[in-house]
Structure formats: C-alpha cells, structure tokens
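=== RUN LOG ===
request id: a7f3
mode: sequence -> structure
chains: 1
length: 222
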Amino acid sequence: MRRIGLFGGTFNPIHLGHVQVVREVKAGFGLNNILIIPSALPPHKELDVVVDAEDRLEMIRLAFSDDPNFVISDVELKRSGPSYTIDTVRHFKSISPENTELYLIVGLDAFLEIDTWKSYNDLFLLIPFIVMSRTINEENSAKLEWKSLKNYLQSKISKGYTFSFAQSSFIHDKKQPVCVLNVTPVDISSTTIRKRIKEGRSIKRLVPNIVKDFIKAKGLYL
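=== RESULT ===
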C-alpha cells in the first residue's frame, strides 16, 4: 500500500516553515510521497499580492529539488477557474492506483474554516485528513486546540465524530478519519517575507537560499 499526502496552498512564496512541516508529516505518517500543489486562483486570497503561478511553481521545485519524495504538481495551474480542493482530491482519486491511500494535509487554522470550502461535506467522504497543529509543547495549549477541533468537528461537520486514542484520530462510522499531528512551530509567514522584501530587508533563514536567489533574480515582491 502506497501512502501519499496532498498538500496544497498559495505558496506565495514557499518558505522554510512549509518545508519543515511537510517533512515532519511525511516522517510522522510514514508517507511514501507528498504532492505539493500550488493553487492557480486561490478562492480565499487577495489576488493582487499573488505572483505569477509559474514563478510560485518554480520556487517550490527549487525548495524540494534535493528530495524526490516530494513531488510538485501543476494540476491546479492547468485547470481553469478557481482552485477548489474538492476538484483536486477527485482528480487524484481518479488517477491513483487501487493500492494507494491518499491523505489531505491541512493546517489547523485552515481546517477550522473548512465549512466555507466548496463541497466540503464531500471531502469528508472521500479522503482522510492530516491536520497539522503547531502547538508549542504546553499542555494547556494542546488541550485547547484539541478541544476546539473536537467542538468544530461535532458542531460543523457531524456529531458522529469521536476521538479514538487507539488510532490517534477522530473517527466516524460513515466519514473519513481526521488525524492530528503536532508539528514544530515555526514563526514564518509568506506575508512577512513579502513585507521584508518590499522594505529591502533580508529574508535569509526564512526561505531556502536557492529560493532567495530566485526571488532576487526575478525581482519578485518588490
């Protein structure tokens, strides 16, 4: 059985926080590969601050150029219209061999807004989730995040979700499981990086060096 993660986003630009968390998810869940999927027209973003899709794709390729376990997919760039996760999941479900198990990797903040996504109920029928929580190892914070996720699932998705300690995930008799993984908190955001570039400040140690050089050579985010 091959286990493959799907990790989408704007990646505007990709940074070391993205790189670290997907490496941790791959190791934590024993995934064979993770597909990194940049969105062409992200429905929840202001498009005037999003650079050309081909540039974002190239930055992702550069960021993972040393590791073939991370595969870059341009499926959303080739599809017309807004980039909806449900369409991407259906695409990969339709082309994956029978012995493939797909997982949708989502940050906790994004997951707690999933009821605003297109056809979100269908997602819970199609694919298990890996929800990344960036709790600093403080027991109270972890309990609060766990409680907020449980409350959200039961109030917005289905009362049938219950936590299974044996499976370390929220399970449901008719819907896909929602797994939770604590990843190392990294205080980096694409917004901060764009702001620093505009102000002429260094982005060293925020993005891979090869990505930093690409941004400078192309004059992005100025």
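=== NOTES ===
Residues 139-157 form the longest helix (19 residues).
The mean pLDDT is 92.
=== END ===
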